[in-house]
Please model this.
Amino acid sequence: MAPEDPAEYDAWLRASVERALADPRPRIPHEQVMAQMQAIIDRHKKR
Model:
């Protein structure tokens, strides 16, 4: 959970972004993520 103090939040966010940028796993193209999320939304709408 993100801290509420603005300075702590800024430090937390910067660290989170740095970790994401340093992640060695392959990136997932935006179009692929959007297609996967749309499939999830569509499945839930059918319920």
About this structure: The chain has two helices and no strands.
